[in-house]
Amino acid sequence: MKKTSSILWGILLVAAGVIFALNALNITDIDVFFDGWWTLFIIVPCVVGVFNEREKTGNLVGIAIGVFLLLCCQDILSFSMVWKLLVPAVIVIIGLKMVLTGLFGNRANEILVRMKAEGKAPKSTCTVFSGCDMNYNGEIFEGAELTAVFGGIECDLRNAIIEKDCAVQASAIFGGVDILVPDNVNVKVRSNSIFGGVSNKTSLHPNAPTIYVSATCMFGGVEIK
After folding, report:
1. Are residues 189 and 224 in contact, defined by beta-carbon separation less than 8 angstroms?
2. Looking at residue 18, what is its pLDDT?
3. Nearest 5°: CA angle at 2, between 101 and 4?
4. Are the CB atoms for 173 and 142 separated by under 8 Å?
5. Please, are residues 154 and 175 in contact by the beta-carbon 8 Å criterion?
6. What is the rounded CA–CA span in Å between residue 157 and residue 162?
7. Which residues have C-beta within 8 Å of that of residue 96, sequence separation ≥ 6?
8. What are phi and psi of 23, to 5 degrees?
9. C-alpha triplet 194, 49, 212: angle, nearest 5°
10. HSE-up of 152 (CA within 13 Å, CB side)?
11. Per-residue pLDDT for the chain (225 aa), expressed as one digit of tens each?
12. Phi, psi at residue 9, to the nearest 5°?
């Protein structure tokens, strides 16, 4: 992922340098500072994020916002039309993601449902206007359900015993959930975010157990590290 980001930024910088050089030599006359050029500071990082980050919904929304603003600056659309078109576009992006999630399944929910069917109730924690630290040192971990509403939860799995694929269902509503994982696991995330998001800072480890995270963020965030 980091390699892809470096390549994309490198290509953009090389292209910008070539354009400036050609303009300086009077070979070309490309107007770099066109109407709405500042929207590139929204569009370009989001495009890079689509290739570089596992959670893409926020970046797709950012691209939609940047493109709409650019079209307005180019007098293709009027600013009065931005909210009329932007809000439906954001809703469509979120809706499509939910449809794809439903079509391709949600592994985290499947694991939690199976646990309950086998009589293994996952640990469930809900904080409202408060905080909670969950520590699984030396415990066998299979699944957990975490809900933070105007509060925070830290779930520490770094010293947990993870023998097979497991799951975490995390909901952050005007709050935050931090999930600390060991180095020898994979983490796969499926999320639905509205004015929030998921940050997954873990690395991939072939043939290692996987922690499947199903996240719902509304004006909140889930961080996995």
Report:
1. yes
2. 85
3. 80
4. no
5. no
6. 9
7. none
8. -65, -40
9. 65
10. 7
11. 445 556 766 777 788 788 778 878 888 777 767 788 888 888 887 777 766 655 566 677 778 888 888 888 888 877 777 667 767 776 776 676 666 555 445 778 788 888 888 888 788 888 888 889 999 898 999 999 999 998 899 999 999 999 889 999 898 888 899 999 998 899 988 877 766 778 888 888 878 899 999 888 888 889 998
12. -65, -35
What are the helix (H) ranges across the chain?
A: 2-24, 40-52, 57-73, 82-104, 107-117
The answer to whether 194 and 220 have CB atoms below 8 angstroms apart is: no
How far is 156 from 146, CA to CA, in rounded Å?
A: 12
Mean pLDDT of the chain: 80
Beta strands across the sheet bearing 197-200: 131-135, 152-156, 176-180, 221-224, 197-200
Tell me how crowded residue 92 is: count the other CB atoms within 10 A of its CB.
11
Q: What angle do CA 112, 157, 174 make, to 5 degrees?
A: 70
Question: What is the pTM assigned to this prediction?
Answer: 0.58
